[in-house]
Request: fold
Amino acid sequence: MRRMFVLSIAVLALGFSAGNAQGEKPGPAKKIIDAALQQASISHKNVLVIFHASWCVWCRRLDSVLTNPEVSPLIDKNLVVVHVDVLERGEKKAIENPGGDELLRSLGGEESGLPFYAFLDKNGKEIADSNVMPKAQNIGFPGSPEEREAFKRLLAQGAPAMAGQDLSKIMTHFGS
Reply:
């Protein structure tokens, strides 16, 4: 029963995040976060909120690593991951999650570029965000050795229960 409830929350959160193929309006960012926090509380995990946009190549690269069949189970074991679509342009504005820009601003990502991400505890308190490079710059996609090392530290901070070997395995998918 509990597993079914968690699965239902996950499906609900995904639906709020992405809308659907028939063009439904995407769900409000607050509902996405509320559903993720509820799932995180039940599953004793933290939440990884990833802010992205359809035009963002680096966002797609990050998503491709995190959804890799070797990486995804390791991430899912430790985090509830949700996406919030922001900063769209023109006709694409309709695919933004309402309230996403405000959430981005409240987490310190307004001037950071995309992808921007933040880790929240099960109560919604920010643990860390991707503004950890020198001069508080955003990691974005961790492409350089310095960015990968910063991302590894951030992931360890955001998902403290993650085993070191799992963390190392994830990092191999970001290149060398």
In short: The two ends are 43 Å apart (CA to CA). The CA atoms of residues 66 and 99 lie 24 Å apart.
